[in-house]
Write a structure and sequence with these properties.
Jelly Rolls; elongated; 2 domains; 3-stranded antiparallel beta sheet; 6-stranded antiparallel beta sheet; alpha+beta; 434 Repressor (Amino-terminal Domain)
Length: 186
């Protein structure tokens, strides 16, 4: 764990000096310096005092870096293509069990010739265009601003009905990281 670096980053972002932290916690500046450089590991009680002085939850200081907020800038998005119709998929962000994607379907394009299924649950929002979503015996025509959800283990498909590109925002949730498919399968 890199608790010291987290403490330093928070302190600097909030424009708090080491002296101010020491005044609030009763700790020495030398000790705080060692904490921030990860040369010593403070007790939970001491971390709780530091967290209170920084006005952050103790649990935040104990979180692993990979569990903290993750930011993907627009220009950093990973873009892939999927299926025979080469749907453009922009991978927006994700967590261990969830992915968020923006999918562009060219006019008349679909997610495949036949409905498909996979583990997980999906929620969709039509950002632009008009699509038809089909799952089993259910079918719905959806336009900009409409949304829908389904259990992805039931065969399903999506097709663009509009003359232009349709764009769909998709969130995929699975019980475990290993169940997330590497590419788009809406």
């Amino acid at each position: 764990m890199d608790i010291g670096s987290a403490i330093r980053a928070i302190r600097k972002r909030k424009n708090i000096t080491i002296a101010q932290i020491c005044e609030a916690t009763g700790l020495s500046q030398g000790f705080m310096s060692q904490v921030e450089t990860n040369k010593t590991s403070p007790s939970i009680a001491t971390l709780d005092n530091i967290a209170a002085a920084l006005n952050v939850p103790l649990t935040y200081l104990l979180m692993k870096k990979e569990n903290r907020m993750s930011v993907v800038r627009k220009e950093e998005r990973k873009a892939t293509t999927s299926g025979s119709e080469k749907l453009k998929v922009e991978h927006l962000s994700g967590t261990k069990n969830m992915r968020l994607m923006l999918v562009e379907l060219p006019p008349g394009a679909s997610t495949g010739d036949a409905p498909h299924a996979h583990k997980g649950q999906e929620s969709h929002m039509v950002i632009r265009g008009e699509i038809v979503a089909e799952q089993g015996e259910d079918s719905a025509v959806l336009e900009e601003g409409d949304s829908f959800s389904w259990d992805a283990c039931i065969p399903h498909s999506v097709k663009n009905l509009s003359d232009g590109v349709s764009v769909v925002l998709i969130a995929v949730y699975t019980e475990s990281e290993s169940e997330l498919e590497p590419d788009f399968m809406a």
